[in-house]
Amino acid sequence: MALLPEDQASQYRLLGIILLAGLGAAFWMYVYQPRAQVVQERQERLESLETWVDQANDASGQIESLRQELESRQRQLEALRRLIPSRSEVATLYETVATESEAQGLQLLSVTPRQAQRDSASGLSQRDWEMSVRGGYHQAATFITRVASLDRLVRPRVQSIQPQDQEDTEMQEVRVDLRLVTYVLTQESATGSSSGGGVQ
């Protein structure tokens, strides 16, 4: 059995087929495959760059969100600092409270300062004092409300309300024992001393 055709035309056809197959294999190996590999590498690099850009955009959005949150916290801190009296305002604050008790017709029975409690982390110290007043119930309630509404942060904490025996029964008087608490800046600052401690 002959491997090659005997007639010349068939031999030329077979030779053409072999040449075409060889050219196709050479094109595949030396042209198409290297270019396909380059295209694949570029595609992978493009996908990698797109991933990096997406991550960068996400990080940028997170940074912007953190920046806005930080600005919001700073505004809240500044607003809180404006409420906190400086060390030099404590005496004025006390005078304001005493004056307000007189304005409401209350008798100031006693005032006892308590030991300051410092917080080095926040830069604040807690200042408070025990106070007792005597007078009409409504006047005492108004006094407590006015103290809680001062420009500076003062929290009145009522500890007890006791009716007082008296000859005049038209107006029942009460004794109110309360604790006034405030937080004081341990260092002077422009923000802390920008406004006074009067009654609103």
Cα distance spanning the termini = 120 Å
The CATH architecture of the largest domain can be given as 2-Layer Sandwich
The top level CATH class name of the largest domain:
Alpha Beta
Along the chain, the helix and strand elements come as: HHEEEHEE
Looking at the structure, what is the overall shape? Answer: rod-shaped
Q: How many separate domains?
A: 2
Short description:
This protein has 200 residues and is α+β, with helices and mostly antiparallel strands. It has three helices and five strands, in the order ααβββαββ.
What would you note in describing this structure?
With 200 residues, the protein is an alpha+beta fold. It has 2 domains: 9-83; 87-185, Ribosomal protein S6/Translation elongation factor EF1B (Alpha-Beta Plaits), CATH 3.30.70.60. It has helices at residues 8-83, 90-103, 137-148; strands at residues 107-113, 117-119, 124-136, 155-163, 173-185. Strands 1, 2, 3, 4 and 5 form a 5-stranded antiparallel sheet that branches. A hairpin with a 4-residue loop joins β2 (117-119) and β3 (124-136). The longest helix has 76 residues, at 8-83. It is rod-shaped, with a radius of gyration of 44 Å. The N and C termini lie far apart (120 Å). The model is unreliable at 188-200 (pLDDT under 50).
